[in-house]
Amino acid sequence: MRVVLATLLVSFAGWVNAQPLPIFDAHIHYSHDAWDAVPVKEAIAILRKAGLKRALVSSSGDDGQQRLYAAAPDLVIPELRPYRTRGEVGSWFRDESVIPYLEERLKKYRYASIGEFHLYGADADLPVPRRMVQLARQHNLFLHAHSDADAVERLFKQWPEARILWAHAGFAPPERVAEMLRKHGNLWCDLAFRTDHASGGKPTPAWRAVFLEFPDRFMVGTDSYTPERWRFVAEHAEWSRRWLADLPREVAERIAWKNGETLFGQMLRKR
After folding, report:
1. Residues 35-60: pLDDT tens digits?
2. Strand partners, 58
3. Residues paired with residue 268 on neighbouring β-strands, in sequence order
4. In which element (H, E) is residue 113 found?
5. CB 162 within 8 A of CB 138
6. CA dihedral angle for residue 153, residue 158, residue 159, residue 162, rounded to 10 degrees
């Protein structure tokens, strides 16, 4: 009987390991220029076909992600961008009209995060970003920052208890990313729109060391910043599964979906 049970357990473990890893995609956009090119029904189908467990979605303007969330609340986790259009990427932090826009949306809808926003260096200390940080604090939201390390440091100075998802891991080298993660316990990274961390189906040695040191601080992401990028969601998920498979199973699962689910999966229910 014990032999049979042991055989069944081994077989079950093998079956589990053979299943495709679920993916929590921490960097999806559904902005105004995608609404006609990729209608809501098609967008949801793309996410599900890719095997996504969840997707952290923002859009310019905010109506896009609200449509996705209404269609698939089990799949879509909304975050609020401070942009009405993608053209505001380089100007929003000096535009005082952003604040009433954020305040109005926060009163009307529920979010897990403010972002993804583009913000660099000393611009993080301008009045508009400062007020945005205050709103995130008031509503207990993550900040999803496409920023250099300097801006991230400034955000933490404004709000030491902030929880920041560092978009693209700052496009920084692994050594710098590790340094920032050691310094800030409330800093996480998405790996969207990066390929330097893996080659030939394996993490590079430098990145592998960082993933093993911080298995609970990384998430994968596609970054569908243009409508065309929606066609890469499934391809990116499969590419991620290939290099993640070279890591220990528990580490791979954390980066693939468990970290995102742990951080964001219950946020809308708790508010």
Report:
1. 999 999 999 999 999 999 999 999 99
2. 29
3. none
4. strand 113-119
5. no
6. -40
In the chain, what are the domains?
21-270 (3.20.20.140)
Dihedral-angle region of residue 171 (phi above 0 means left; psi in -120 to 50 means alpha; beta otherwise): left
List the one residue out of 227, 167, 222 whose CA is nearest residue 32: 227
Instruction: Output the CA–CA distances (angstroms, integers) from residue 110 to 114, 189, 267, in the order listed.
Output: 11, 23, 9
Per residue in 122-159, pLDDT (tens digit) is 999 999 999 999 999 999 999 999 999 999 999 999 99
Look up residue 102 and give its amino acid.
L
Q: Are 184 and 160 in contact (CB under 8 A)?
A: no
Cβ atoms of residues 169 and 146 within 8 Å = no
Question: Whole-prediction pTM value?
Answer: 0.93
Query: What does the alpha-carbon distance between residue 104 and residue 135 come to, in Å, rounded to a whole number?
Result: 11
Question: CA triplet 206, 117, 253: central angle to 5 degrees?
Answer: 40
